[in-house]
Amino acid sequence: MSTQTETHEFQAEVSEVLSLVVHSLYSHREIFLRELISNASDALDKLRFEALTQPDLMDAEENLGIVLARDEKARTLTIADNGIGMSREELMENLGTIAGSGTRRFLAALRESGGADSPQLIGQFGVGFYSAFMVASRVEVSTRRAGEEKGTIWTSDGSSGYELSEGEDLGRGTVVKLTLREGEEYDPYLQEWRLREIVSKYSDFVEYPVQMEVERREPKLDEEGKPIEGEFETRLVTETLNSMKPLWARPKAEISPEEYNEFYHHISHDWGDPLETIHLRAEGELEYTALLYLPARPSFDLYDPTVKTAKVHLYVRRVLIERDCEDLLPPWLRMVRGVVESNDLPLNISREMLQDDPRVRRIRKRLVKKVLSVLSSLLEENRERYEEFWRGFGVCLKEGIYYGEDEQQRISRLALFESSTQEGLVTLAEYVERAGDDQDEIYVLTGPSRKLLENSPHLEALRAAGREVLLLTDPVDEWMLERLTSFDGHPIRRADRGESLVEDEEAKEQREEKARELEGLLGALAEALEEDVSEVRFSSRLKDSPAVLVGDTTAPSAQMERLLRRAGHELPKQKRALELNPVHPLVEGLQRLFSVDPQSPRVRDYAALLYGQALIAEGATLENPARFTQLLTELMTETVSGGGSH
Ligand code: ADP
Fold it and tell me: Measured from the CB, is residue 83 less than 6 Å from ligand 1?
């Protein structure tokens, strides 16, 4: 019999999370109980799941549950479950380290927020077990894993590490014993009424009984078991504190908004209330229930490329088959939280089988449709709330336009964009309506920021013609536009591509005439920029600026090129056309220079400057900024000293 005790240090992140939890969540202390009950309930789920294939792990008749016990004198509160338990290794891994790449990012986000949003952020992260230290000065975890003989005891005061020792005669499962901190603010956690209140507030829908021995004053009985009038005694009885009915299984009409919200907090770890709650029951050939939530704000891991799955859990006949089941919703709806239960799926369905199961695919299709229709009603009925959602999650929906074949057009109705002529965000439908019958195309321009796009030379002619242009500044817009090429039969046209946008016949003739006239100059400029541009031509899109770069309709846009390069892709240089403003005085000047001396080195210099400033105007970086500034300085020097090259 060994009673040896080993001492272990916490991983650095654990200490950091621990101290954050203890110091920033003191106004939410009571949630420690929710977290521990939720862990116990997960452990019972795991046992039930493993027992499907290993029936020896438990007795078929056994009652699974959670028991709370309090001892006011010793100042202890225990939370016991007869669930899966933990092996020694699992114990060390689970309660001594923090797994997951998200932790570092989370801690960074927390430091950045300067503590202001701590409860929100910690809530999203899921403080879990460590929240016990908000109320306890010492925590002891005695646990034995199902199927193993020996158990382990873990103890810690939450400062720097923990101790491990072997546990004798432990039952299967886990007992968490908290020694409460001194101070009257902690006393309520030893009182029956307070514990009862916390359980019913946060854990009512836990599917296993949460039981506690409570004192009950009852009439005293005589020898025959009949109540004696006027005489009472206090007896201890075991009471189940929660209703145990999973919320999603209850009729909608009986569920209060508070209950829906509480369940959301429970499964999402989000402290805020959800934006929308979707409770749906499908009947008929394939029956299932889904309780889904749309959060109001993005979680800190929304853009973590390793987190692609909506946190929606799949149950079959009350057994949790898979947490965060990736087959229930596509990655672009990964913000959704909730549960789906279908009794028409077999209990022994494996995780691999889920993917190919036609029933699961049908559920997924229906859920996607439902979420989209809820969003579409929100867009119609409460624009402000919808915009809040869009600001947080629009990027995901745009991914959906790229990936979501069937739903593409439906999602595009939900998309909001900035506009060159309107304040705020507009939908494609609103754009089309405003554009009226004589405009077929929808104009869009992509780039790094609204400000840059507003001042883009590409907008000049469109603006003069009174055309609205949608300004797209999310990196994902580039990918989205590859798929979204039309909306309701209106082609989507990129303002920085193709030969001409808005031009009447007369203007076109004049432009072509001018091009014939100045053929020599255009040729000389093109030659000077041979390495950089595909051609130099006159433009129909400029009013004030002298020059602009224009892509091919099929080539990737400048913004796409920048993004791909930034992501480390090697791309061949995409040559675009340099378009000149045929009526700009600069062009006249260049022509004079050229006609005097077609070989003048100044023509080359001006070509380089025109190209360089066109790049700057679209927010790009110059390949050779030193040469550009040198040319610019020479030119400025000539100008201020009254010289000039002509
Ligand atoms: P989370 O529950 O969010 O994973 P916790 O810090 O609460 O994080 O718990 C860490 C892990 O410890 C859990 O994922 C689980 O594997 C294990 N654990 C905690 N409590 C129990 C318990 N009562 N029974 C079995 N395992 C548990």
Answer: yes
